């Protein structure tokens, strides 16, 4: 479902599996959450996280087929709610990591998959295959509270948010850069992964104090921290 590799001070979390859609099932969400907590427990000054995936999807959102397999509407809704609440903890862990985080979107990132990518500090995208898509408006669904807060926190343009959330716009690489959603695009998988490693090495070389980095990130997104339950610790600067 996912693997965690450490190369020097860089952690690489990769979504894997036979189903390359990487739908966020309870099992995959739990695996991601466990990996993030493991990273947090051993991260040091200069550590960085890269999250990427195998295949043509970054993640195609929550595992709706699993929810619908419950058989009746109430049971399906309960399963969907379970996944939404579990993913809330993943977003909280990403907000609380004491290290920079990078999402590498080499394919489709839809709905909750888009949310997972956007929860990172940086997003890099493949130009020819990368697609960002919030499908809820087309499916007749509503956004969980923390989805909405995340989009308001991470996408500065109101017009861009409108097009993504209310317009169901499928945003490709160059458009995503122009809309201020991703940091850059690359033409092939190899160049994208090389760029992510270069960025990680550059960020890691700064050797920022982890608690300070975490606190400053939380200060940028206070409403998001509230809705996902990420408590802010107040600390003195490490160099005082």
UniProtKB/TrEMBL annotation:
Catalytic activity of the protein: a (3Z)-enoyl-CoA = a 4-saturated (2E)-enoyl-CoA; a (3E)-enoyl-CoA = a 4-saturated (2E)-enoyl-CoA
GO molecular function annotations of the record: delta(3)-delta(2)-enoyl-CoA isomerase activity
Species the sequence originates in: Linum tenue
Enzyme class: isomerase
Keywords linked to the UniProt accession: Lipid metabolism
Homology family: Belongs to the enoyl-CoA hydratase/isomerase family.
BP term (GO), one: fatty acid beta-oxidation
GO CC list: peroxisome
Transmembrane region(s): none
EC numbers for this chain: 5.3.3.8
Name of protein: Delta(3)-Delta(2)-enoyl-CoA isomerase
Pathway: Lipid metabolism; fatty acid beta-oxidation
